[in-house]
């Protein structure tokens, strides 16, 4: 699954266009490497998102195409 789509479906970032902007401005890393919006996300990957001085790290637990809002938090685990 594409990075921008995963960030939107998991509701880590509310809109896909915002997720795309984050990735294009090198504020998203997958397993320590700068990721583009089209980078493939796999189970077990660590996604790091830099917002200002804050850095959040998430581990991908599951990939699904359609998820209800209350089930979105089951797709990832917060590491930091």
TrEMBL record:
Residues 1-62 form the RNA-binding S4 domain. InterPro entries: RqcP, S4_RNA-bd, S4_RNA-bd_sf. It comes from the Bacteria. One of its GO terms (molecular function) is tRNA binding. Keywords: Protein biosynthesis, RNA-binding, rRNA-binding, tRNA-binding. GO terms for biological process: rescue of stalled ribosome. The keyword Translocase does not apply. Pfam families: S4. Associates with stalled 50S ribosomal subunits. Binds to RqcH, 23S rRNA and the P-site tRNA. Does not require RqcH for association with 50S subunits. Key component of the ribosome quality control system (RQC), a ribosome-associated complex that mediates the extraction of incompletely synthesized nascent chains from stalled ribosomes and their subsequent degradation. RqcH recruits Ala-charged tRNA, and with RqcP directs the elongation of stalled nascent chains on 50S ribosomal subunits, leading to non-templated C-terminal alanine extensions (Ala tail). The Ala tail promotes nascent chain degradation. RqcP is associated with the translocation-like movement of the peptidyl-tRNA from the A-site into the P-site. Belongs to the RqcP family. This is RQC P-site tRNA stabilizing factor. It comes from Candidatus Syntrophocurvum alkaliphilum.
């Amino acid at each position: 699954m594409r990075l921008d789509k995963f960030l939107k479906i998991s509701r880590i970032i509310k809109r896909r266009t915002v997720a795309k902007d984050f990735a294009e401005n090198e504020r998203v890393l997958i397993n320590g490497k700068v990721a583009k919006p089209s980078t493939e996300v796999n189970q077990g990957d660590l996604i790091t998102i830099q917002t200002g001085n804050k850095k959040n790290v998430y581990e991908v637990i599951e990939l699904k195409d359609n998820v209800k809002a209350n089930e979105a938090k089951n797709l990832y685990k917060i590491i930091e």
